[in-house]
Amino acid sequence: MGIIVLMSIYVTDRQSFDSLLANLGDFGSFLGGVGTMIAAAAAAVGVDSWLKQLRVGQSLVVVWDVQVALRKIHAAEISWYVHAYQRSKDFDVEKLEEDVIKAFEVLDNCAHELDAIVVKNQFEWSNKVMDIQLAWREIKSYLEKHPRPENVADVIVENELLVPKNSQFSAVYKEYLEQLEKLEQTLK
Q1: CA angle at residue 100 from 95 to 103, to 5 degrees?
Q2: Going by fewer Cβ within 10 Å, which terminus of the chain is more open, N or C?
């Protein structure tokens, strides 16, 4: 309004003033159109980013679920191993073994989700679950088939046999955890 009042003071010809107002109106319409295009572009970018966040967010949740399930297996395996290694008749090792088996079931379900939603490769992570499960079963099988060592020489022999099996389990666990962390970083 101030500009229009100032222009009306300086422009004495009524026809020039009307022409100037029409030009200013056209310029304002042009600026309004440019502003609308900028707003539309910003909205399109914003909606695209929002949709990407929804997809990536879902994928990250699946990866985090697998990481949690894998860590729970590691914790359950440690608890089971401590008592299974002692081969004590006083303690219910079967309960701890059931906990490990349940943790593997949860991991297997999470791995199927990861294969279907994120990786979109039929059985990549499900196969990895089998690898860590096989490593655990080797330890379990050894402990079930062999009695508790009675003397120091037997303990040394047993440790020579168990250390590679435990190392295999730990190596597979660490490898999969690292792969999950890399997958998480690629999704971010």
Answers
A1: 125
A2: N
Tens digit of each residue's pLDDT (9 = 90 or more) over 124-168: 888 889 999 999 999 999 988 988 888 888 889 888 999 999 999
Nearest to 110 by CA among 66, 48, 58, 55: 66
Q: How far apart are CA 159 and CA 147, in angstroms?
A: 13
Distance (Å, whole) CA 177 – CA 130: 15
Confirm if 160 and 131 have CB atoms less than 8 A apart: no
Q: Can you give the length of the chain in residues?
A: 188
119 DSSP 8-state letter: I
| Token pair 């107002």: residue | 21
Q: 46: how many CB neighbours lie within 10 A of its CB?
A: 10
Distances (CA, A) of 109 to 97, 118, 162, 175: 19, 14, 29, 19
The overall average pLDDT reported for the chain is 84
pTM of the model: 0.67
Each residue's pLDDT tens digit, 80-117: 998 888 877 777 888 899 999 999 999 999 988 888 88
